[in-house]
Amino acid sequence: MNNFKVDRTGSQRLVHLDLKGAPPRISYFEKILPFIKNIGATGILLEWEDTFPYTKDVIPIGSLSDHAQTSGAPYSMEEAKQILTIAAACDLIVIPLLQTFGHLEFVLKHENWRSLREVEEFPSSICPSKSGTIQLITSLLEQMIEFHPSIQYIHLGGDEVWHMGMCSICEKRIQTSQFGKSRLYLDHMSKIGHYVKENYPGLKIIVWDDMFRNIEVEILQEYPSCNFFELMIWNYLPSDSFHLNDGLWEKYNSVFSNLWIASAFKGATSSCQLIPVIKYHLSNHLAWLTELEKNSKKIGNLRGIALTGWSRFDHFATFCELLPCGIPSLCFCMATWISGGYSQDLEESVRKLLGSDCGTISYLESSTVCLPKTNPQPTFPGWQIFVGIEMLMNLRTRYKNLINSDQLQTWFNTWQVLNSFTNPMQIKSLLLVVIELLGEMSTVKEHLKKYMEEVFFNHTLEEFFGTLMVPVEHHLNQMKTDIERQLSLGGRAREHMNL
Ligand SMILES: [Zn+2]
């Protein structure tokens, strides 16, 4: 896959690494960055969030905070620098992404900056009118930009500002402004944009497009910052629901000199998805190809695409797909993007690249846990985690089926256990299922622990197992104890309880 087609899709192909969930160890970066370079990426869009080693007054926000240090959360200053060194060695450009308006939970959750929330009870959006806001954002930006000395671009986020114009000062501002919330949004983003331009004149600025979609072109034209903002238009939906606003390209082209687009290879379906639905993400890329072809005459200068791979839906959300689980999807999506479509030949070459049928064969049908007997085994970085998570999904499905089963509802429900009114014959067979599941859970846990320790920090393992395995194991162990106790009673007459 070396014949990269440079055409109407732009010259850049960024892979988004969302470090706010399950940030990989440096040793994994050493494997994955050459790998994504090899499949055709030109750069990485690095969303550091709270893994960035902020210092000085904003130290509590990042990885050098006392809490991060105690819990072993990444990255140290040296590790963060190593990521940039590895990217440079792979000839991948790095674009850091720092949120500057919404999605600021990682900042606003701290007491120090609680007073800057737009809505006191929600830590999502910062208030653009409070006096400390610009100082805080520029302080974060300064550290972020100076940490990346050779960057050409910075991404200022700016998407999904859920709370705007809700505090008393902002409310007043929108009431007295002709253009209400649009004005509030643009004033804030422009202030940040001008700060970057004045202090780092060579830097190009990218902003997510969604908040611009419904702002009238006349308002946009009033803002000089729109001359240097490069909008990244995102849409993660498959063909049957993919839609951009009518007149969007015309509007953006009349205001912005350069545009980007963003698709998704993971983290854009269910908020707790464990393995990406490759068909869904492929369809998203095919929809984008059709969109660009259909509007080729209306699209001005398109810099390229960012293939996003979300790790959490927000800072407080649980994990969605881990990076190694998204690699087959990324490979299929990237190859489709570069080739301008999907074909049998492409499928063959991607399978070869992955080292097996990963991504097209599901192991979910098997009833017992075992490593897949595909020959040869996959070879992509972290494939053992991909396989382990498929086994875990299988187990979780079987566990859910058990607790919702007629057998359990009929012969081992809570009332029956409380009253010791159980049929030994029925619950004996339940015990066998529980013991089997517990045994397989332990095998999968051992497998995942072994390989996840190689890729992730303990901080991630603790959350992963604590979320997806420990509660299930705990419940199964409790069931086992309860069944064994009931069996020891051996079936008794119902006692008359005093109600
Ligand atoms: Zn406000």
Description:
The protein is an alpha/beta fold. It folds into 2 domains: 12-354, TIM Barrel (Alpha-Beta Barrel), CATH 3.20.20; 383-489. 47% of the residues lie in helices and 11% in strands. The chain has helices spanning 26-38, 66-71, 77-89, 105-108, 131-147, 168-176, 180-199, 217-221, 248-255, 278-294, 323-339, 344-354, 383-403, 406-411, 414-418, 424-455, 458-468, 470-489; strands spanning 12-18, 43-47, 93-97, 117-119, 122-126, 153-155, 204-208, 229-234, 258-266, 301-309. Helix 1 packs parallel to helix 3 (77-89), helix 5 (131-147) crosses helix 7 and helix 13 runs antiparallel to helix 16. The model is unreliable at 1-6 and 359-373 (pLDDT under 50). It binds zinc ion (ZN). Zinc ion (ZN) is lined by residues 118, 127, 129, 167, 169-170.
Sequence-ordered SSE layout with sheet pairings:
Layout: E1 12-18, H1 26-38, E2 43-47, H2 66-71, H3 77-89, E3 93-97, H4 105-108, E4 117-119, E5 122-126, H5 131-147, E6 153-155, H6 168-176, H7 180-199, E7 204-208, H8 217-221, E8 229-234, H9 248-255, E9 258-266, H10 278-294, E10 301-309, H11 323-339, H12 344-354, H13 383-403, H14 406-411, H15 414-418, H16 424-455, H17 458-468, H18 470-489
Parallel strand pairs: 1-2, 1-10, 2-3, 6-7, 7-8, 8-9, 9-10
Antiparallel strand pairs: 4-5
This protein binds zinc ion.
